[in-house]
Design a protein that fits this description.
By secondary structure, this protein is an alpha/beta fold. The chain has helices at residues 41-48, 70-76, 93-103, 108-122, 137-149, 167-179, 191-197, 215-219, 222-227, and strands at 2-9, 18-25, 30-34, 55-60, 63-64, 77-80, 155-159, 183-187, 200-205, 208-214.
């Protein structure tokens, strides 16, 4: 479903952020993308949706990311941004949720029906008529995810989805993510969330792949994590996870 080969990418400076990065993700996999600040996690996702150009090859569902293929590729991918304010740009949650489907030719009635069904499946019907500027940070993050799911993507890219969530919304996020059938790539510093939602982990260090393997093997390897600027998840370090807080 996702193929990255010898990917090198940067932001116009002399030193690229990604260096000859390669990995593959099969359909239906739940993969965590971890690494210290500046490792290149967000850069990888931007390359996948064509926001950044890269040397090497990036393929989505068999098609290479390039200008000609971008409209098709972006319909396959739901990209949940790190900052929800950059994603929720209409006045209400309803308006944001129906914008995408209507932009692809769906009638307003059909788009509303689909959007309501999505919120019902997520148990978030209460967000329907809410004004975006009145949402809490956690509510806005969940609304942003619902907006993406209304587009019915085959792949979900999620950049720091639990950032600043309170314990209740974090629990809801984990439950929602675990029930979604899409292929998922979740970039996060919240290693407890990765532990609870992902079967496999890609560890990135200075734009290179430092490790690739089962979540349990990588997140329990204290030495490996510390070598790459990370620490054990709280649930493995003898500290209660925030999921258990009331």
């Amino acid at each position: 479903m996702i193929r990255v080969e010898n990917c090198t990418c940067g932001y116009g400076g002399d030193d690229p952020v990604l260096h000859q990065l390669s990995f593959r993700i099969a359909e239906g996999e739940r993969v965590g993308l971890i690494g210290a600040n500046g490792a290149g996690k967000s850069t990888i996702m931007k390359c996948m949706v064509g926001l950044l150009s890269a040397e090497g090859t990036v393929c989505i569902a068999g098609r290479e990311v390039c200008r000609k293929e971008l409209p098709w590729i972006r319909r396959q991918i739901g990209y949940v941004l790190q900052d929800s304010d950059n994603q929720m740009f209409m006045a209400t949650v309803k308006q944001d949720m129906i914008f995408g489907p209507m932009n692809y030719g769906m009638s307003a009635a059909e788009a509303e029906k689909l959007a309501k069904q999505t919120l019902e499946q997520l148990g978030m019907e209460f967000l329907w008529d809410r004004q975006n500027h009145r949402l809490s940070g956690g509510e806005k993050r969940m609304a942003a995810l619902a907006t993406i799911l209304t587009m019915n993507p085959r792949i979900l890219l999620m950049d720091e989805p639990s950032l600043a969530l309170d314990p209740g919304n974090r629990r809801r996020l984990i439950q929602v993510v675990n029930h979604l059938p899409q292929t998922k790539l979740i970039a996060s510093h919240d290693l407890d969330l990765v532990w609870e939602t992902c079967d496999r982990v890609l560890l990135i260090h200075d734009g290179r792949l430092a490790a690739d393997g089962p979540t349990e093997a990588i997140l329990q390897d204290r030495e490996l994590l510390e070598e790459n600027g990370l620490e054990l998840p709280l649930c493995l370090a003898g500290v209660p996870s925030r999921t258990n807080f009331e």
